[in-house]
Amino acid sequence: MYAALLTLLAAFLTAPLAAQAPAGWQVRIDKSTEANDPDDVPNVKVTTTGKGFRVTGGPAGTYWNSASRATGNFTARATFRLMKPSGHTNYYGLIIGGEDLATAKQRYTYFLVAQNGSYIIRTRTGETLQDVQSRTMHAAVSQPGADGTSTNALEVRVSGNQVAFVVNGTVVHTAPRTGAVAQTDGLAGVRVNHQLDVEVEGFQLQ
After folding, report:
1. Which of 61, 170, 179, 202 places its Cα 20 to 30 Å from the Cα of 14?
2. Residues with Cβ < 8 Å from 194, sequence gap 6 or more?
3. Contact 155, 75 (CB under 8 A)
4. Which of 76, 46, 80 is nearest to 63 (CA)?
5. In angstroms, what is the C-alpha Rg of the chain?
């Protein structure tokens, strides 16, 4: 499976992303083995937009720029516009603390929202997931309107011994910089789960 992933990255994703997405961005595509949550759509399309890029899928993937590496206190932020509802609840948002993202040893924390008004925070090490905050409904998460779109501005703020997770200016969860989210230093980027059409604008690391 890992060999197949490397082939996919080399043959399909590396060159097209260089041509279509903002310079320097890379992607690692998931290959789910769960029948109830399959990554069975073979293609993902990434195109540059005025302020960022648009992901139309396709399988789930993690996106990052190797220049976006954070240490100490920092804020990672981006605005996500869901272009149309998915056939079922899928999540998209930010990652922090990324290491070995192109390999089977990948490690990161993700903070994602979904069209049903929920958010989720998890850490990932290889294929092992650990909840920091399980799927939780929150009024701050915008849901699709009459036109089928929704916009959510996400931030992860790391300061001292605290990590704050923010949706549209509202802190929806805080966690100590210990335990599951002890490792905040590393690459910051974006995650878009499968069968979604999402624009990512204004990704910033400060």
Report:
1. 202
2. 30, 32, 38, 39, 41, 57, 58, 59, 60, 90
3. yes
4. 46
5. 16
Instruction: State the pTM of this model.
Output: 0.88
CA dihedral 71, 134, 57, 77 (to 10 degrees): -30
pLDDT in tens, 12-21: 343 335 446 6
Coil, helix or strand at residue 20: helix
Which token pair is 106?
A: 């990948």
**Looking at the chain, which runs of residues are DSSP E strands?**
25-29, 44-48, 52-57, 61-70, 74-82, 91-99, 107-114, 118-125, 128-137, 150-159, 162-167, 170-176, 186-192, 197-205
**Domain locations in the chain?**
2-205
What is the DSSP secondary-structure string of 23-78? TTEEEEE-----TTS------EEEEE-SSEEEEEESS-EEEEEEEEEE-SSEEEEE
pLDDT digit string (tens) for 72-109?
999 999 999 999 998 889 999 999 999 999 888 999 99
The alpha carbon dihedral of 174, 177, 178, 184 has a sign of positive
Helix (H, G, I), strand (E, B) or coil at 106: coil
Distances (CA, A) of 98 to 62, 84, 126, 144, 171: 10, 29, 11, 30, 22
Q: What does DSSP assign to residue 22?
A: P
Please tell me whether the peptide bond between 126 and the residue prior to it is cis, using omega within 30 degrees of 0.
no
CA torsion 98-76-134-119 (nearest 10°) is: -130
CATH number of 2-205: 2.60.120.560
